[in-house]
Structure formats: structure tokens, C-alpha cells
Write a structure and sequence with these properties.
eight-stranded parallel β-sheet; 10 strands
Amino acid sequence: MSEAILEADLPIIDPHHHLWDLRPMLSMFPEPHHRFIETLLPVAHYTFDQFNAEVTTSGHNVIGTVFMECGAFYNGAYGEGLKPVGEVEFVNGVAAQSASGLYGETRLCAGIVGHADLTQGSAAGEVLDALKAAAPSRFKGIRHQGAWDADPEVLGPPFHAPPELYRDAAFRKGFAELGKRGLTFDAWVLEPQIDDVIDLARAFPDTPICLDHCGTPLGNASYSGKLEERFPIWREAILELGKCENVMVKLGGLAMHNCDLPPEGPAAGWSSEKLAPLWKPYIETCIEALGTDRAMFESNYPVDRWGASYPVLWNTFKRITAQSSKDEKAALYAGNASRFYGLEDLLA
């Protein structure tokens, strides 16, 4: 869908996107494909050229981005524990490609969030050091996703974490290694698991944590048709999370198939005028809970392509914040991401 770009000069740091080649993985899943697989098929191959084209032709003023781990380009030659280093090596090369200036002014992957298996306990420290060595100026922290639900259809293959991962003693021993190195942590869980993030944040009050995707409200599988019913439960959890001063929240992820906002996809073609009322209660609640200084808008691309094109996605956010002040917009769209991930040079 093509529509006029709102506030085209507003600087944006997109703090959450992926690059990958999922074709080998997706080929392992037989027909019929789960809805999650259907979501990924149109973007199974999504690397620098595709994302750069999305950003540079969007009409929005995206000045930089942060890559988020997604299990892509692991290097098995490094061994099981260290194989995620391959992903950071790959992305650091992409970042250098972008930094050359030959592909536009946007600095793609100016920040890199990798992965380390924190259930290794203190041994995770070796992996963190290797990740940092692979991208000394760009590596900012890790994500160890904890998404799980008793209904396997909610997520679908292949990304189920163990239940209550963030409460596991070995995981927390590994998590402590982040604080020793001043690294960030991105938490991806589903809405019923937000309490696990709250408990983790309280146990490590000095480690910066970002809750991804508004905590992933659920409207699919066994949660189908229950968004309105569950909204107060989600809201109460987000308000409690907001009391943890070391936590930020990413405003986005609502176009994922899990949320059913919208229910159609992929690339549903909904306008920003139609999407804004669906997303507004979630985004405004997150801002109410954490304030405009602890929230940042994200694209979650290409996953959120399920429900919104890149230009429409950012237009939707801008409609929701139309009444916000200039300073609030500066924080929500770039300043907070810059501060959390140490990208102040992008705004210099």
C-alpha cells in the first residue's frame, strides 16, 4: 500500500530488525506449513540488499539500525557454544558495507545484538568475549529468547524455549556475565510470561533489559478471539514491569502473526489509518508504564511484514504519537535507542 509519508524529517533509529537466509531451515518442515512458516516464506531470504531497499525507499528518515540475533549464519566450525559468533561476524561485515556510504546515508547494523547460550552459566562469559571481539565497536549485547506457551500452535516450529527459562539458576549464572561486561539484554517472551522478565529485572537491577514487541500480546491459536479479554491482564503486567527502572520496552512487533493485529497476512495491505486504532492501546499503555524515556519504536522487520509494509508501519506509529511533543518524539524514535545501545554518534 502506498500512502503519503508523515513527518518525513523525523530522525529514526530502527532498533530491531533481522537479516537471514532461512531457506535451509524452512525446507525441513513438510506441508502443510504452520502459519508461522507461512509468515516467513515470503522473506526466507532477507539480507542486506532487501532491507536496505526497504529503508532507503521508505520515505522515512531512518538514520541507523540495530541488528537483532535470529540464529542466522552460525559457524559450526567454532563449536556448539561459540557458533553464534559467526552471526556477529557476518553482520559486522554488512555494517561495514553500509558504513562505506556507497548504499545510502542510513547506517544499517550500527549496533549488533548477538546470542550466547546463558544456560552455560559462567562459561557464557567466553562466548560474550568472543562476540565482542568479532565486532568491537558494534556489538552491544545479546538476546536469549524465552518465548514459550503450553499450546505449541501459538509459536509453531522451531523457536520454543524451555518454560520459565529466565528463572533457571544456570541461566541466571550466565546472565550475571552480562553485567560484568556492561552489556545489554533483549528479552523476547509471550504475554503470559512477562512476570518472568519482571522477576529477572528485579534480580539484576543494574543490568539494562529491553522487553521486545510490547511483551507479545497473543491473539492466535488457543488465544484466538481473546485479545479484548486478555488486555487487562497484559496491561497489569506491563504496569508492574514499568516499576523496574532498568527495563525499557520496544514498541512494535504487533504486526506479527501471533498478535492477530491484523489477522490477515502476509503483507495484508492495511493502511496506517486502519492499523493505528488496533495498536494504539498497547503502545499507549507501554508509554504510560515506562514513560517516553524508556520506550523505543521498532520495525521488527521482516517479521512484521506479515501485517504492514515498512512505510506504513512507521506511519502507523507516527499517527499514534501525533499529539506527543517534539522532545517526546525525539526520544521515542531515536534518542532512547541511541542511549540504550550506545549509538550517540548517530545523532551527533
